[in-house]
Amino acid sequence: MAKIFGQRSATLWFTGLRGSGKSILAFPHEYILLNAHYKTYVLDGDNVRHGLTKNLDFPDDDHDENIRRIGGLSMPFADAGLLALSRFISAFRKDRQLVRKIHEDAILPFIEVFVDILQEVTEKRDPKQLYIKALCGEITNFTGIGSLHEILENADMNLVYLKLHGLIRG
Is residue 23 annotated as part of the catalytic site, yes or no? Predict the structure, then answer.
């Protein structure tokens, strides 16, 4: 299919804390790619939560299942010849490795993009105020509070988001 579309297919997997800028990066890239006549689609929590993952919540087991499902959904997009821009927190290394493996087993490119930003900044940028709810105990096992986000050791791309608020990590 990719040959029919005249492009290489792949899954670009944007990962990082809630509010790190995954959407700010994925959606404009989709627009740029579409305007350059690439076939692409953004998968994110908002467009899968109403169906594929609507029965899942915040506990760690649900995080694992959520990423397994999304990884399984991203692969057919890439297999169909599209550029799948998947943007999910995907906090656990083992989950990201699983998604990479299912792509590698299908001989499909998988590009992991880590959007690296200070948690203090993500907390300030939280329009749904989920960080506040987690800090108050209304949400348990929330990534960054009660459940950690395992840092990517070998991301294919590591975007340190400097210009957003003028903050540098590390």
Answer: no
